[in-house]
Amino acid sequence: MSPNITQSWVLALVPEIGLVILLAAVLLYDRLVKPEERRRVGLLTAWGAFAILVTTLGLWLATGEPNNATDIGTSLMWGGMIRFDLIALVFHVIFLVALMLTALLSLDVEHLQKGEYYALLITAAIGFSLMGASADLIMLYVALETASISSYILAGFATKDPRSSEAGMKYFIYGAFATGVMLYGMSLLYGLTGQTNLYILGSIFGGFQQIPTEVNAVVILSAVMIMVGFGFKISAVPFHFWTPDVYEGSPTPFTGYVSTASKAAGFAVFLRVFTTGVLGEPSDASMWWAMLIAITVITMTLGNFVAIFQKNFKRLLAYSSIAQAGYALIGLVTLSPDGSSATMYYLLMYIFTNIAAFGVITIVSNRIGSDELEDFSGLSRRSPYLALVMMFALLSLSGIPPTAGFFGKFFLFRSAVNAGLWWLALLGILNAFVALYYYLSAVKYMYLYRSENEDDPIPVSRGAKVGLAFSLFFIFYLGIFAGPIFEWTRTAADAFFVLAR
Amino acid sequence: MIPLSWYLLVAAALFSIGLYGVLARRNAVAILMGVELMLNAVNINLVAFWRYGRFPEQPVGLAWAVFVLTVAAAEAAVGLALIISIYRHRDSVVAEEMDTLKN
Amino acid sequence: MIEQIIFIVISLFTLMMGWIVVSNNNLFHAALALMASFLGVAGLYVMLDAGFLAMAQLLVYIGAISILIIFAIMLTRRMMQTEESPFNSQPGLAGITAVSVFAVIAFIFWQMREFWPLGAGEGAMPPADKSIILGSVAKLGEYFVSPDAFVLPFEVASVMLLAALIGSIWVAWPKTEDES
């Protein structure tokens, strides 16, 4: 084993290397900065994430790597641990944007201005990025745990607040349990083949004319167990129990982070594992595929119907995010390049939309000390800017043009129809109508209802303004010029299905 | 000679015991102990699969087991820190009584 | 034959201790049983010729994790002796779930007993000859630092440990009024 690290091996790790450097810088800077200037640590994180984002995209434009070649041999790197393809790039963009926006929107919350908080956001981002790139079960597991462990602490970060501690505890218990089950399933795949690389596994199982029934039973068992772990990450029903409590109790900026980046990372590994054919070809007879469709339907429906009855804004968005995971799963169950790219597009637009929504809640609840829906009454008079951002975020979540959410849903439903799952698309559309009801009722609170404190404006700091404006810009950009971005994710998605051709 | 399936059955039994602990216990520390048992079961699986597998000259299963060990240590530290933090607030670590977040 | 008897003894010990962990009313006793169970697992590793992992198990699980758990139990000592039931409202349901999970796994494995590992042909495969796995610890060390193997997860694990370190100190550190 002669180490022959090539240029593209290093290029593949540029975002992660950048994040590690940023991590060191943040921890060091936190010690040097004066207590009253603590905000600068957050600004450093945001600028750092932005710089890494620009570098990553710049290197891609300059060197052409990762290219959209779908050859496995050249795209597997570091001993097959990660795959350097356009998918990895798309997810790197997603996570870096999420990190940047979360850091910007955290700036206003006094008790989060700690080096530890930003350091953990960065370690979580490192875990997410490697999850998005991983091509090996071991790499996937370690990256997933890096992200999870950082997230458990971030959920319980506000140690003064009993709700936050409780959120951290719950997230930890459910998370440790789900990843334990997932790991058992993964160990079975290793046991069957002696291999851990997803693509080698995929070609082994693809090479069979007829998988013996006994072996198939083990594969299904392991698929179900892996689904528990991944389903937890994307908060799909029935592994969603933690979602409302953790979303409500966690510090709000982190809730935005976990609902977008963590979910996107979950989808990344879901797509990586289930499209390689590791778990057998999907067909009408394939049990795990039927289960996945059932999960999709229940996740969409349950999320939306429970969200109607929520009185707390964060809980409402928690159930809405369960429903959104259901929509994104539609693209996954089609198991086609079209569907996968629709899912990736959806996740990309979801970052801007949901972080903007949680950003507004952060600023408002930081001021009024509550995140109940009725305390948002009269927001349009107290802060027209915040109410406007929130309204467009909610419209995007419900999928109204010209916001990004419209094309997100459009691509997903179109891929379902093309794959012959028209009834799934129909269910999705019906669900979107149900969702419209509770999103609009939240808008009603902000715009139509009055409150006594209307002459008490809510100040917005410059960092948060920039973050929200950035999100708002992309909510519209992705809603109007969806074509090129979708083409980009579509090209990327081909790399998922290299074994299928 | 001990057949591979013996090891796997022991691991499956240990996994199920851990599962029971996680699902049935009230105390957060006890739940954590259940999770640790589950991870141990996975490790038995991994090592047995390496020893009986097709590629015993490549200790991939061993390496994986070492990673699981590392993760378990980190997870235990974080879990217990969270347990202590919650204990400060309510003098109890009973998972069922964590109901501040229910409406 | 003797090997099999030793295996059965170690396994029964491990599982019985595991059962005490999940069923004992006294958390402190449960933690001690957990240590014993870890010891049994280490014994299984020895039987599988994974001496290195057995040592790591002793150091990390018994030496660190169990001690950490015992510390946590003593720091939250009010919950150590309690007259209440150690179980939540649904031990029956949990029991049924656990037993059925075991039954399903055991059934599938029993069907598979001739097939492990995939492609090995008919009949269960005996463990590899000891001469083949002789240098596996050296190989393991090489794997962890080789770019053609696990150097990347190895490095990421260090980031994870750093995160766990920073995070648990932050969360467990008692906060005074001025530094909340």
Topology:
The complex is a heterotrimer of chains A (501), B (103) and C (180).
Chain A: H1 7-12, H2 14-32, H3 39-63, H4 72-75, E1 76-77, E2 82-83, H5 86-106, H6 115-133, H7 137-155, H8 162-193, H9 198-206, H10 213-233, H11 242-249, H12 252-275, H13 287-307, H14 313-333, H15 337-368, H16 379-382, H17 384-398, H18 404-418, H19 422-447, H20 462-480, H21 482-493
Antiparallel strand pairs in A: 1-2
Helix pairs in contact in A: 2-3, 2-6, 3-5, 5-6, 5-12, 5-15, 5-20, 6-7, 6-12, 7-8, 7-12, 8-10, 8-11, 10-12, 11-12, 11-14, 12-14, 12-15, 13-14, 13-19, 14-15, 14-18, 14-19, 15-17, 15-18, 15-20, 15-21, 17-19, 17-20, 18-19, 18-20
Chain B: H1 4-24, H2 28-52, H3 60-90
Chain C: H1 2-23, H2 27-47, H3 51-75, H4 91-112, H5 136-145, H6 151-172
Helix pairs in contact in C: 1-2, 2-3
How would you sum up this structure, described in words?
The complex is a heterotrimer of chains A (501), B (103) and C (180). Chain A has 501 residues and is mainly α. Chain A has one domain (5-500). Chain A has helices at 7-12, 14-32, 39-63, 72-75, 86-106, 115-133, 137-155, 162-193, 198-206, 213-233, 242-249, 252-275, 287-307, 313-333, 337-368, 379-382, 384-398, 404-418, 422-447, 462-480, 482-493; strands spanning 76-77, 82-83. Chain A has a two-stranded antiparallel sheet. The longest helix of chain A is centred in the middle third of the chain and has 32 residues, at 162-193. With 103 residues, chain B is mainly α. Helices cover 75% and strands 0% of the residues of chain B. Chain C has 180 residues and is mainly α. Chain C folds into three domains: 1-82, NADH-ubiquinone/plastoquinone oxidoreductase chain 6, subunit NuoJ (Four Helix Bundle (Hemerythrin (Met), subunit A), Up-down Bundle); 94-127; 128-174, no CATH class. The N and C termini of chain C lie far apart (63 Å). Chains in contact: A-B, A-C, B-C. At the B-C interface, helix 1, helix 2 and helix 3 of B face helix 1, helix 2, helix 3, helix 4 and helix 5 of C.
Provide a quick synopsis of the model.
The complex is a heterotrimer of chains A (501), B (103) and C (180). Chain A is mainly alpha-helical and 501 residues long.
